[in-house]
Amino acid sequence: MKRIAMFSGGKDSACLVTLMLKAYDDVTVVFCNTGWELPETITYIDEFNKKYLDEKLVVLKGKKYDGMYDLILKKNYMPSVHHRFCTEELKVRVINDYVKTLGNNVELFNGVRADESYKRRELKRRVYDDVSGCYINRPLIRWTAFDVFEFLKHNNIIINPLYYKGFKRIGCGPCIMVSLKELSIIKELYPQRIDLIRKLEKETKQSFFIKKFIPERFRTGKTNKGDAVGTIDDIIRYLDSKQKYFEIAEQVGESCMSYYNLCE
User: Fold this and answer.
1) Which residue among 82, 174, 177, 228 sits deepest, i.e. has the most Cβ atoms within 10 Å of its Cβ?
2) Would the pTM count as exceeding 0.70?
3) By CB neighbour count within 10 A (0-12 exposed, 13-18 middle, 19+ buried), where does 50 fall?
Protein backbone atom coordinates (compact mmCIF):
# COMPACT_ATOMS: atom_id res chain seq x y z
CA MET A 1 0.00 0.00 0.00
CA LYS A 2 1.17 3.54 -0.85
CA ARG A 3 0.35 5.92 2.01
CA ILE A 4 0.27 9.62 1.10
CA ALA A 5 0.28 12.16 3.94
CA MET A 6 -0.79 15.71 3.09
CA PHE A 7 1.41 18.43 4.60
CA SER A 8 0.62 22.16 4.55
CA GLY A 9 2.95 23.61 7.15
CA GLY A 10 0.23 23.91 9.79
CA LYS A 11 -0.02 22.29 13.21
CA ASP A 12 -2.53 19.61 12.17
CA SER A 13 -0.58 18.36 9.18
CA ALA A 14 2.66 18.42 11.22
CA CYS A 15 0.90 16.26 13.81
CA LEU A 16 -0.47 13.95 11.13
CA VAL A 17 2.92 13.43 9.49
CA THR A 18 4.63 12.79 12.83
CA LEU A 19 1.94 10.31 13.82
CA MET A 20 2.25 8.43 10.54
CA LEU A 21 6.03 8.31 10.57
CA LYS A 22 5.77 6.63 13.97
CA ALA A 23 3.25 4.07 12.70
CA TYR A 24 4.58 3.25 9.21
CA ASP A 25 7.90 2.91 7.42
CA ASP A 26 6.58 3.71 3.96
CA VAL A 27 4.95 7.15 4.12
CA THR A 28 5.18 9.68 1.28
CA VAL A 29 4.68 13.26 2.49
CA VAL A 30 3.26 15.68 -0.07
CA PHE A 31 2.97 19.47 -0.08
CA CYS A 32 0.79 21.26 -2.67
CA ASN A 33 2.44 24.64 -3.26
CA THR A 34 -0.23 27.24 -4.10
CA GLY A 35 2.28 30.06 -4.50
CA TRP A 36 0.25 32.03 -1.95
CA GLU A 37 1.85 30.79 1.28
CA LEU A 38 3.59 33.32 3.51
CA PRO A 39 7.42 33.29 3.63
CA GLU A 40 7.56 31.84 7.18
CA THR A 41 5.48 28.89 6.08
CA ILE A 42 7.79 28.06 3.19
CA THR A 43 10.84 28.41 5.47
CA TYR A 44 9.16 26.20 8.08
CA ILE A 45 8.29 23.54 5.50
CA ASP A 46 11.91 23.49 4.30
CA GLU A 47 13.14 23.12 7.88
CA PHE A 48 10.60 20.38 8.64
CA ASN A 49 11.64 18.57 5.47
CA LYS A 50 15.32 18.62 6.44
CA LYS A 51 14.80 17.78 10.10
CA TYR A 52 12.18 15.03 9.92
CA LEU A 53 11.77 13.86 6.31
CA ASP A 54 15.38 13.43 5.16
CA GLU A 55 14.56 15.99 2.44
CA LYS A 56 12.15 13.55 0.78
CA LEU A 57 9.14 15.88 0.77
CA VAL A 58 7.26 15.73 -2.53
CA VAL A 59 6.34 19.25 -3.64
CA LEU A 60 3.49 19.45 -6.14
CA LYS A 61 2.29 22.38 -8.20
CA GLY A 62 -0.49 22.58 -10.76
CA LYS A 63 0.41 22.55 -14.44
CA LYS A 64 -2.50 24.68 -15.59
CA TYR A 65 -1.99 27.64 -13.24
CA ASP A 66 1.22 29.03 -11.79
CA GLY A 67 -0.20 29.55 -8.31
CA MET A 68 -2.98 31.67 -6.82
CA TYR A 69 -2.05 34.96 -8.49
CA ASP A 70 -1.96 33.40 -11.96
CA LEU A 71 -5.18 31.48 -11.29
CA ILE A 72 -7.16 34.62 -10.43
CA LEU A 73 -5.76 36.59 -13.36
CA LYS A 74 -6.59 33.85 -15.88
CA LYS A 75 -10.10 33.29 -14.54
CA ASN A 76 -10.52 37.06 -14.13
CA TYR A 77 -12.52 36.76 -10.95
CA MET A 78 -11.95 36.15 -7.27
CA PRO A 79 -12.67 32.94 -5.38
CA SER A 80 -15.31 33.24 -2.68
CA VAL A 81 -16.64 31.41 0.34
CA HIS A 82 -19.30 29.79 -1.86
CA HIS A 83 -17.02 29.26 -4.87
CA ARG A 84 -13.63 28.16 -3.59
CA PHE A 85 -12.15 27.22 -6.93
CA CYS A 86 -8.70 28.06 -5.54
CA THR A 87 -8.75 24.96 -3.34
CA GLU A 88 -10.14 22.85 -6.15
CA GLU A 89 -7.59 23.97 -8.75
CA LEU A 90 -4.46 24.37 -6.63
CA LYS A 91 -4.85 21.47 -4.21
CA VAL A 92 -7.60 18.96 -4.96
CA ARG A 93 -6.91 18.55 -8.69
CA VAL A 94 -3.17 18.58 -8.11
CA ILE A 95 -3.18 15.80 -5.52
CA ASN A 96 -5.71 13.75 -7.52
CA ASP A 97 -3.52 13.95 -10.63
CA TYR A 98 -0.55 12.84 -8.54
CA VAL A 99 -2.45 9.90 -7.03
CA LYS A 100 -3.38 8.68 -10.51
CA THR A 101 0.31 8.34 -11.39
CA LEU A 102 0.85 5.93 -8.49
CA GLY A 103 -1.33 3.08 -9.72
CA ASN A 104 -3.61 1.07 -7.47
CA ASN A 105 -3.66 0.51 -3.71
CA VAL A 106 -3.12 4.14 -2.68
CA GLU A 107 -4.54 5.77 0.45
CA LEU A 108 -4.56 9.49 1.27
CA PHE A 109 -4.22 10.86 4.81
CA ASN A 110 -5.02 14.43 5.85
CA GLY A 111 -5.13 16.35 9.13
CA VAL A 112 -8.73 17.56 9.01
CA ARG A 113 -10.40 17.88 12.44
CA ALA A 114 -14.14 17.92 13.16
CA ASP A 115 -14.04 20.94 15.47
CA GLU A 116 -12.63 23.22 12.76
CA SER A 117 -16.04 23.91 11.23
CA TYR A 118 -19.66 22.82 11.30
CA LYS A 119 -19.31 21.15 7.90
CA ARG A 120 -16.34 19.07 9.02
CA ARG A 121 -18.27 17.64 11.96
CA GLU A 122 -20.11 15.44 9.48
CA LEU A 123 -16.96 13.96 7.96
CA LYS A 124 -16.08 10.32 8.54
CA ARG A 125 -12.71 9.02 9.65
CA ARG A 126 -12.30 6.94 6.50
CA VAL A 127 -14.18 7.14 3.21
CA TYR A 128 -13.69 6.09 -0.38
CA ASP A 129 -13.43 9.00 -2.81
CA ASP A 130 -14.56 8.31 -6.37
CA VAL A 131 -12.73 11.30 -7.82
CA SER A 132 -9.30 10.42 -6.49
CA GLY A 133 -10.01 6.72 -6.79
CA CYS A 134 -8.72 5.88 -3.33
CA TYR A 135 -9.58 5.93 0.35
CA ILE A 136 -9.19 9.18 2.29
CA ASN A 137 -8.23 8.83 5.95
CA ARG A 138 -8.63 11.46 8.67
CA PRO A 139 -6.81 10.15 11.76
CA LEU A 140 -7.20 13.45 13.64
CA ILE A 141 -10.92 13.89 12.98
CA ARG A 142 -11.81 13.72 16.72
CA TRP A 143 -8.72 15.55 18.00
CA THR A 144 -8.84 19.08 19.40
CA ALA A 145 -6.31 21.85 18.80
CA PHE A 146 -5.12 21.29 22.37
CA ASP A 147 -4.54 17.60 21.60
CA VAL A 148 -2.50 18.53 18.54
CA PHE A 149 -0.24 21.02 20.32
CA GLU A 150 0.26 18.65 23.24
CA PHE A 151 1.29 15.88 20.84
CA LEU A 152 3.75 18.15 19.03
CA LYS A 153 5.19 19.37 22.33
CA HIS A 154 5.55 15.84 23.69
CA ASN A 155 7.40 14.76 20.54
CA ASN A 156 9.57 17.91 20.38
CA ILE A 157 8.26 18.84 16.93
CA ILE A 158 8.88 22.40 15.73
CA ILE A 159 5.79 24.43 14.86
CA ASN A 160 5.19 27.16 12.33
CA PRO A 161 6.31 30.51 13.86
CA LEU A 162 3.20 32.21 12.47
CA TYR A 163 1.24 30.70 15.36
CA TYR A 164 3.27 32.85 17.74
CA LYS A 165 2.36 35.95 15.70
CA GLY A 166 -1.38 35.57 16.10
CA PHE A 167 -2.47 33.28 13.25
CA LYS A 168 -5.20 30.77 13.99
CA ARG A 169 -4.79 28.74 10.81
CA ILE A 170 -1.89 28.31 8.42
CA GLY A 171 -2.22 28.09 4.67
CA CYS A 172 -2.74 30.73 2.04
CA GLY A 173 -1.69 34.21 3.05
CA PRO A 174 -4.29 35.45 3.10
CA CYS A 175 -7.07 32.97 2.56
CA ILE A 176 -10.33 34.41 1.24
CA MET A 177 -11.70 33.51 4.69
CA VAL A 178 -9.04 35.52 6.53
CA SER A 179 -9.94 37.28 9.78
CA LEU A 180 -9.39 40.99 10.37
CA LYS A 181 -6.79 40.19 13.03
CA GLU A 182 -4.76 38.00 10.69
CA LEU A 183 -5.01 40.54 7.88
CA SER A 184 -3.73 43.24 10.23
CA ILE A 185 -0.66 41.06 10.87
CA ILE A 186 -0.13 40.51 7.14
CA LYS A 187 -0.46 44.25 6.58
CA GLU A 188 2.34 44.94 9.05
CA LEU A 189 4.69 42.08 8.17
CA TYR A 190 4.06 41.44 4.46
CA PRO A 191 3.17 44.70 2.68
CA GLN A 192 4.17 43.07 -0.62
CA ARG A 193 1.23 40.67 -0.27
CA ILE A 194 -1.12 43.61 0.26
CA ASP A 195 0.27 45.11 -2.96
CA LEU A 196 -0.49 41.88 -4.84
CA ILE A 197 -4.08 41.90 -3.61
CA ARG A 198 -4.40 45.52 -4.73
CA LYS A 199 -3.14 44.54 -8.22
CA LEU A 200 -5.57 41.62 -8.40
CA GLU A 201 -8.48 43.85 -7.45
CA LYS A 202 -7.46 46.36 -10.11
CA GLU A 203 -7.17 43.67 -12.79
CA THR A 204 -10.42 41.87 -11.97
CA LYS A 205 -12.37 44.94 -10.78
CA GLN A 206 -13.49 42.86 -7.79
CA SER A 207 -12.72 42.83 -4.10
CA PHE A 208 -10.69 39.99 -2.64
CA PHE A 209 -12.90 40.04 0.46
CA ILE A 210 -16.47 39.16 1.35
CA LYS A 211 -19.07 41.92 1.27
CA LYS A 212 -19.50 42.21 5.04
CA PHE A 213 -15.80 42.05 5.92
CA ILE A 214 -15.91 45.61 7.21
CA PRO A 215 -18.86 47.92 8.13
CA GLU A 216 -20.76 49.35 5.16
CA ARG A 217 -19.80 52.94 5.90
CA PHE A 218 -16.15 52.08 5.13
CA ARG A 219 -16.87 50.36 1.79
CA THR A 220 -16.20 52.22 -1.45
CA GLY A 221 -16.19 49.28 -3.86
CA LYS A 222 -19.15 47.70 -5.65
CA THR A 223 -20.04 44.10 -6.39
CA ASN A 224 -21.43 43.05 -9.78
CA LYS A 225 -24.89 43.45 -8.24
CA GLY A 226 -24.13 46.98 -7.09
CA ASP A 227 -23.75 46.16 -3.39
CA ALA A 228 -21.11 48.04 -1.39
CA VAL A 229 -17.94 46.04 -0.76
CA GLY A 230 -14.64 46.92 0.88
CA THR A 231 -11.52 47.06 -1.29
CA ILE A 232 -8.11 46.31 0.14
CA ASP A 233 -7.52 50.05 0.55
CA ASP A 234 -10.83 50.44 2.39
CA ILE A 235 -9.82 47.65 4.74
CA ILE A 236 -6.36 49.08 5.32
CA ARG A 237 -7.91 52.43 6.25
CA TYR A 238 -10.28 50.62 8.58
CA LEU A 239 -7.41 48.73 10.23
CA ASP A 240 -5.41 51.94 10.55
CA SER A 241 -7.95 53.48 12.88
CA LYS A 242 -6.72 53.57 16.46
CA GLN A 243 -10.01 52.21 17.71
CA LYS A 244 -9.79 49.09 15.57
CA TYR A 245 -6.24 48.35 16.57
CA PHE A 246 -7.30 48.72 20.19
CA GLU A 247 -10.14 46.24 19.68
CA ILE A 248 -7.80 43.75 17.99
CA ALA A 249 -5.27 44.09 20.81
CA GLU A 250 -7.98 43.36 23.36
CA GLN A 251 -9.05 40.23 21.48
CA VAL A 252 -5.49 38.92 21.24
CA GLY A 253 -4.45 39.84 24.77
CA GLU A 254 -1.51 41.92 25.83
CA SER A 255 0.55 39.06 27.26
CA CYS A 256 0.73 36.86 24.18
CA MET A 257 0.05 37.36 20.48
CA SER A 258 -0.64 33.65 19.95
CA TYR A 259 -4.28 32.68 19.35
CA TYR A 260 -3.54 29.42 21.21
CA ASN A 261 -1.58 31.06 24.08
CA LEU A 262 1.59 29.24 23.04
CA CYS A 263 3.73 31.77 24.89
CA GLU A 264 2.65 30.41 28.25
Assistant:
1) 174
2) yes
3) exposed
